[in-house]
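Chapter summary example: a protein plus adenosine monophosphate.
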Amino acid sequence: MLHGLMMDVPLLISSLIEHADRHHGDVEIVSRRVEGDIHRYTYRDMHRRARQMANALAALGVALSDRVATLAWNGYRHHELYFAVSGSGAVLHTINPRLHPEQIAWIVNHAEDRLLFFDLTFLRIVEAIAPHCRTVRHFVAMADRDRMPAQERVELLCYEDLVDRHSDRYAWPTFDERLASSLCYTSGTTGNPKGVLYSHRSTLLHAYAAVSPDALGMSATDTVLPVVPMFHVNAWGIPYAAPMAGAKIVFPGPNLDGKSLYELFEAEGVTCSAGVPTVWQGLLAHVEAHGLRFSTMKRTVIGGSACPPAMTRLFEDKYGVHVLHAWGMTEMSPLGTVCSYKPKHLAQGVEAQRAVQVKQGRAIFGVDMRVVGEDGGELPWDGKAFGSLLVRGPWVLREYYKGEGGNPLRADERGREWFPTGDVVTIDPDGYMHITDRTKDVIKSGGEWISSIELENIAVAHPAVAMAACIAAPHPKWDERPLLVVVKKPGATVTREELLAFYEGKVAKWQVPDDVVFVDSIPLGATGKMLKNKLREQFRNYRLPTA
Ligand code: AMP
């Protein structure tokens, strides 16, 4: 046996900010604050304040591997905590503030968080949960001293006090790269939320993959605005990837409406962004309504749920913004696939490019995929056979925090372990993965499977449709048939018959929905995805006209 003779330098999150300070120290980080104003400073300033905060954490008794929670928007203080907490060896637990307070308290107790940092927006949540949080020693308001709220229900510390009171003399400790760095809970549709515990190693490897050209393609010449929240799988890794690349960052804070985002894109010269389709819908509506243009924006990553082709076309063909359709999960840090072209797509022209962009893309190096049928046997990559997607790789979950939910992995014939994603997919001969559904959302009609995503994509291409969800409705003959639930655009009119006719020639006849219902809104989950389980519940007893 002959070992390599290269240095064994651990991959640690603190090295990202040390690198950004040394090589890109004057690059700006711009934040829209909860206070309403714009804050700007540099990577060098950020590194200094992160060191001050690391000293503050030590003074508050935070020890190696202790969990420190945040309830916060995308902003510079949250970013400082990404490095102060993880860099000092503690675990950053980013909590989704859109969850119900009871669920938040449950998560805090399960994680045994020692400190909880929060943006003032979430004061009410903190007041509601504080009496139930058994392990939290201090609640810290991420605010200036003169903004500290006058209230007596919870004893609060002030973030800026903590920073001011501590020295910036701090040497980031060195430790095993496999130690936990951060924690995100994923809320399935049933059961309690489950904790996904990332390591320094998995985070750094994921960041290397994220910056690479066919993934986010991030460089020192970029200005990146992560719309995806820092409480949703670490904003898809951008808070780590940006300092690795030396890119300027623009944090949008709490204002995620189309107007606020557009103004920030233009004012700060944003070149790339990332977010879920529902956010882009708001931005595009604003841009369309006011006849605006993007003057600096070159590309955006769209994922979290399927990017409707109509949205891709609008971004690409009207506004010249390149869409990178991407797929991932909390359990995958989250990046799995990105839909970047191969040379043949460039040669084949625009229509071929739009056709491939409907797919979620090809695996980035580090992620291995496999599709299996109901019997567990591997299916061919022919773009037709669909089955359950399994993945493996160094930033894919092995088990949930505290062993919750038992062993999620499945072994293959060679004994290699795979994580079942719960997604139903095809993979084509070029390796492009296409999600037809979540296992739970697929519509099973007379033994055939109908893709709810495909039917939704068609519906939202209709000019009168703002949002559409397709769910299975019970049917006496076919077991299940598709029911289309639609939110119309304000002021738009369209009938059930017109929408059903819109499917003609776009899918096989037996896949056309059986009925359409119009609703005022579709329930969205904490990460902006349509809650189809809620809709199914709502329409449980719906009688289709075909039944
Ligand atoms: P989460 O862990 O909350 O990020 O959810 C992960 C799930 O979101 C995946 O397993 C997919 O079902 C879904 N998802 C993520 N990206 C996409 C995409 N581009 N298209 C369709 N579904 C997606």
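Key point: The CA atoms of residues 119 and 350 lie 44 Å apart.
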